[in-house]
Automatic annotation (TrEMBL):
Keyword annotations from UniProtKB, A to Z: Cytoplasm, GTP-binding, Hydrolase, Nucleotide-binding, Ribonucleoprotein, RNA-binding, Signal recognition particle
Function: Involved in targeting and insertion of nascent membrane proteins into the cytoplasmic membrane. Binds to the hydrophobic signal sequence of the ribosome-nascent chain (RNC) as it emerges from the ribosomes. The SRP-RNC complex is then targeted to the cytoplasmic membrane where it interacts with the SRP receptor FtsY.
Source taxonomy: Bacteria, Bacillati, Chloroflexota, Ktedonobacteria, Ktedonobacterales
Residues of the full protein shown: 1 to 299 of 487
Any one annotated GO CC term: signal recognition particle
Domain SRP54-type proteins GTP-binding: 272-285
Domain notes: Composed of three domains: the N-terminal N domain, which is responsible for interactions with the ribosome, the central G domain, which binds GTP, and the C-terminal M domain, which binds the RNA and the signal sequence of the RNC.
The keyword Ribonucleoprotein appears for this protein: yes
E.C. numbers: 3.6.5.4
Name of the protein: Signal recognition particle protein
Subunit structure: Part of the signal recognition particle protein translocation system, which is composed of SRP and FtsY.
Residues reported to bind GTP: 111-118, 193-197, 251-254
Species this chain originates from: Tengunoibacter tsumagoiensis
Length: 299
């Protein structure tokens, strides 16, 4: 993956310098961990997250007596790998989408304009249909006129139904009406594309809160652009504090970002990343697997 290339090369270099065999001194381990911390910061990882990461690796390394082992470098590396998995979100069930309610389950997408929200709505519908669901896309973004046409055309292209109303309709009404329609049509999962703005503002948050209160979505997913690095982390933190998210979709992970958002966002917000966007096409969406990503990072 492009975004993690430099980080994985850097980490590789660090561990090669530690040597494959032979005993390490505490100084060796400290030097390596200083380099790990620098590599994380260069990848635009949140400073606090980078510091905690290195502290935990050091603690575990000391606890497991790597210095006395015959393969200390590999041991440090496997501790780093464990911590990478942890910082990316662990291996728990809460990384997966929860569609355990009685159908139609409702997934609400929120996010800033340009984050890839509308595209992700279509990708998610496409993904869920492949899992045997009957999805419905709901065009509830009344602030970007093009969004309604965009989602209609994506729906047409994928042959997935789209519920929409004329511009100017109230977004809460649209979602409520869409739910009636979904029940009539035996839809199993509804994906709400709600309004995005350039900045988080009170009106936007009120709208999200109102839709949430009326529709009681099973999932409220923030769509955030990984290319924006720590800005994406701040946006996620603000959204989570205002509307309490159940998960995130990190888009543009195929881009030339350095990995900082993916590596920081879970630790800072406590909200799991559930999917990642890997391109512009409607099939470029993958479930987010911390262990696989950790392996890719370490090369
Ligand atoms: P919205 O304003 O949040 O609804 O954003 P859009 O869905 O219109 O997406 C904005 C731009 O980002 C479009 O050009 C998309 O094709 C592009 N985009 C969305 N997701 C991804 C992704 O995962 N990778 C890449 N490379 N581009 C993406």
């Amino acid at each position: 993956m492009a975004m993690f290339d430099s980080l994985s090369k850097r980490l590789d270099g660090i561990f090669n310098n530690l040597g494959g065999q032979g005993k390490l001194t505490e100084e060796d381990v400290n030097t390596a961990l200083r380099e790990v911390r620098l590599a994380l910061i260069e990848a635009d990882v949140n400073l606090k997250v980078a510091r905690q990461f290195v502290d935990r690796v050091k603690e575990k390394a000391i606890g497991s007596d790597v210095m006395g082992s015959l393969t200390p470098a590999q041991q440090v590396l496997s501790i780093v790998q464990e911590e990478l998995i942890e910082v990316l979100g662990g291996t728990g069930e809460n990384n997966r989408l929860d569609l355990g309610g009685s159908p139609p389950n409702i997934i609400m997408l929120v996010g800033l304009q340009g984050s890839g929200k509308t595209t992700s709505a279509a990708k998610l519908a496409n993904y869920l249909r492949k899992q045997g669901q009957r999805p419905l896309l709901v065009a509830a973004d009344m602030y970007r006129p093009a969004a309604v046409n965009q989602i209609k055309s994506l729906g047409k292209q994928l042959n997935i139904p789209v519920y929409s109303e004329p511009m100017g309709a109230d977004p809460v009404d649209i979602c409520v009406n869409a739910l009636d329609y979904a029940r009539e049509q035996a839809i199993s999962v509804m994906i709400l594309d709600t309004a995005g703005r350039l900045n988080i503002d009170e009106r936007m948050m009120n709208e999200v809160t109102n839709i949430r209160a009326r529709l009681k979505p099973r999932e409220v997913l923030l769509v955030a652009d990984a290319m924006t690095g720590q800005e994406a982390v701040r946006v996620a933190d603000d959204f989570n504090k205002a509307v309490s998210l159940t998960g995130m979709v990190l888009t543009k992970m195929d881009g030339d970002a350095r990995g900082g958002a993916a590596l920081s966002i879970r630790s800072v917000t406590g909200v799991p990343v559930k999917f990642m966007g890997m391109g512009e096409k409607t099939d470029a969406l993958e479930p987010f697997y911390p262990d696989r990503l950790a392996s890719r990072i370490l090369g």
